Amino acid sequence: MANQGFYPDNYTYPCVLKACSVSGDLWAGLQIHGAVVKLGLDMNLYIGNGLVSMYGKCKCLDAARRVLDEMPRRDMISWNSLVAGYAQNGRFNDALKLCREMEDLKLKPDAGTMGSLLPAVTNTSCDNVLYVKEMFMKLKEKSLISWNVMIAVYVNNAMPNEAMDLYLQMQVHGVEPDAVSISSVLPACGDLSAVVLGRQIREYVERKKLRPNLLLENALIDMYAKCGCLKEARAVFDIMIFRDVVSWTSMISAYGMSGQGKDAVALFEKMRDSGFTPDWIAFVSVLAACSHAGLVDEGRDCFNLMDEYGITPGIEHYNCMVDLLGRAGKIDEAYHLIRQMPMEPNERVWGSLLSACRVYSNMKIALLAADHLFQLAPEQSGYYVLLSNIYAKAGRWQDVETVRSIMSSRGVKKIPGNSNVEINGHVYTFLAGDQSHTQSKEIYKELDSQNRFVNTK
């Protein structure tokens, strides 16, 4: 262009900066920044926005912030570009801080701002869910992306009920879910075992012809697996045109959760034979499957196989092995493995060992495990209960009373059990002894009636 006598201007540079953003070409972006400064065009709004976006995409967030601060005039695109830069680099809380800064300047975050947050919320939890919700509620016009962002925020912050309710509200408002909406809400269905809604979503996927979609299909497998619907999970897996390691791992995990360890190991081998390289998470899944099914030899083989793929076992892999050996009654071997670990064992590792000691009445190692657990997690009631049960099984009632006294003195209370019931697309959570439900009296009356019927049988 320049060779033919045409020189770039304030219309050309934003286009070229966009190209640098998409390609992640920081070197070219720096040259353009230098050129616009020499020409005095760096004060142009559209060029400034292009620079903010380019630096954000190239992970130079301090430079992006400097450009924004030096711009004599800014619009919503300027701010949203930097919000997107923070979000794309996983700095969710910085992105929210910038949104608050906008509000301090009397600028209202819009649907574009919510959309800018999307890259972060799909994988990251945030410290201020209420602020994101407040931002969402203030939007006069809620785009599909805005709904998707809010659903993802709820899911990634362990708020599955809220995610499901929002998904249903979205449809009431006439907003059609897309593949992103569905991929976001399916983990919530799995967490709540809301299989009825999960099946309705599957029907919607087929009706709207949203397949093939790797992310969506992987989410469907995971949802069915968590709901215990192994055949439906396998049906989704079998019809997939494209698969990745996540697809195979999700299906292996599904077999593991259903106690079908041999099928999990067989699928793991099939994945390897198909040319897929198992990753860190795939080994966790197959080791967990071996643990639940008591496949000690297969578990050892998989654990040793990690070295072949250049994967260093992490704390999760060791936890699976301790659990595997403990369930098989090999308490001493499990304890020996813990002592050989290259990292400090965490409470899950010691917890797995303590659980095994309860089953096999190994008092000596139980006391060692409990001592570590009370240091690592002094407020976790479950470990006190486990130790108390071990003493009770051995008939050491004085020690049972001592454990209960320690719990009382430390203010540790047993966490009540809970269960979820799905009725008409809504999931209700009930805690043991809870009377907060409006129909509690009727529910307990019916339970008493059922118990009397069972006792007479």
Automatic annotation (TrEMBL):
<dbReference type="InterPro" id="IPR002885">
    <property type="entry name" value="PPR_rpt"/>
</dbReference>
<dbReference type="Pfam" id="PF20430">
    <property type="entry name" value="Eplus_motif"/>
</dbReference>
<feature type="repeat" description="PPR">
    <location>
        <begin position="143"/>
        <end position="177"/>
    </location>
</feature>
<feature type="repeat" description="PPR">
    <location>
        <begin position="279"/>
        <end position="313"/>
    </location>
</feature>
<feature type="repeat" description="PPR">
    <location>
        <begin position="314"/>
        <end position="344"/>
    </location>
</feature>
<dbReference type="InterPro" id="IPR046848">
    <property type="entry name" value="E_motif"/>
</dbReference>
<keyword id="KW-0677">Repeat</keyword>
<feature type="repeat" description="PPR">
    <location>
        <begin position="75"/>
        <end position="109"/>
    </location>
</feature>
<feature type="repeat" description="PPR">
    <location>
        <begin position="244"/>
        <end position="278"/>
    </location>
</feature>
<protein>
    <recommendedName>
        <fullName>Pentatricopeptide repeat-containing protein</fullName>
    </recommendedName>
</protein>
<dbReference type="InterPro" id="IPR011990">
    <property type="entry name" value="TPR-like_helical_dom_sf"/>
</dbReference>
<dbReference type="InterPro" id="IPR046849">
    <property type="entry name" value="E2_motif"/>
</dbReference>
<dbReference type="InterPro" id="IPR046960">
    <property type="entry name" value="PPR_At4g14850-like_plant"/>
</dbReference>
<dbReference type="Pfam" id="PF20431">
    <property type="entry name" value="E_motif"/>
</dbReference>
<dbReference type="Pfam" id="PF12854">
    <property type="entry name" value="PPR_1"/>
</dbReference>
<dbReference type="Pfam" id="PF13041">
    <property type="entry name" value="PPR_2"/>
</dbReference>
